[in-house]
Amino acid sequence: MLTDNIFMLLKKVSKDEDQLSASFGFLLKEDPEILNNFLKKLGITLSRHDLKMVDIEALVPYVFNTKRSFIDLQIKIPGKYLIFVESKIVPTKIKTILKQIRPYNDILKNKEAEYEGGTRLVYVARDLVDKQQIEAIQRNLRRSDCEFLFYSWEDLLSLVDNCRRKNRRIIELFNNYIGDTMHNKKIISEQKIKNISDVLVIFTNPAFWAMTLQNDIAVQKKSSPDTRYIAFLRTHLGKGERSGITHIAEVDYTEIRPRKEMFEGLNAGTRKLLTKHIVDERGGDLEDVHKVYILKKGSIRELPRKIDHYGAGVMVKFSAKMSDLLCAKTTKDIKKGRKI
Question: Which end of the chain is flanked by fewer CB atoms within 10 Å, N or C?
Fold first, then answer.
């Protein structure tokens, strides 16, 4: 296989999380400055001699209590520190995270006596995890804030990017390989993601429509895809009026933000409607995070005619091609992408 980027060689051998872990591990091996700065983030300062003794290995198998586990990335300073790095693209709920990492925590606890400096468990994901959630995980695992640490991939990419005195070409290849898929803020016009949606159609009730008009944003779950345009399928339009797609807007960039930030700049009536829908009706948590589509100023446009909606009432959103959207008379005419 021909490639001009060494990191692409990992593409065919493992899932995305493993590719990221192996790629980052390769950088740590190749560049002592990056390794040293990463260890300092974990509260570990090593001498030059100890830094040369660091052993880094990806996908390390362990068997503990008859259960077999694979550590995404293991960093070992013999006799001093043992570090496990668990890599995820999209973090999930606390219960799921704990289920994923508890076996690794048990292994580390079992080996603590072998390392005078102790052990570290590091969780890395694309999106932010709320501080309260991190603290809850630390309490559950009985680990201090220096023993269990969370970083976004954007944190680590920034760390790598600031270490350019050596191996500049390797760092450039790593950044090109990762692209902007692991950054929190994604400017849509600069996206390198080939499967980005043309249009994301989102179901929009009156509260969220008011928010969109006032703040030029749309919000969805943090795992929602990037898209060039948002089409607003508005619900609860009035007695006897069918829901339908009425407006479209161009996306400038996306970010993962705390939900409560969506209330900034809104009038009291809209804030009340949103709180009622999110908290009272849906049982949502305003301290949680979501994906925000920041729309280009002045890009919200009303369609020449409403596209009436039929069927699939429980859907929240779906992707579509712009050509299908512009020709459609009803949503049945739209060739929908994967339902999300």
Answer: N
Q: Annotate 123-154 with b (16+ C-beta within 10 A) or e (fewer).
A: bbbbbbbbeebbeebbebbebeeebbbbbbbb
pLDDT of 10 strictly over 70: no
For the entire predicted model, the pTM comes to: 0.56
Q: Which of 110 and 195 is assigned the larger pLDDT? A: 110
What does the pLDDT look like over 55-73, one tens digit per residue? 998 888 888 888 888 888 9
The band of 84, judged by pLDDT with boundaries at 50, 70 and 90, is: very high
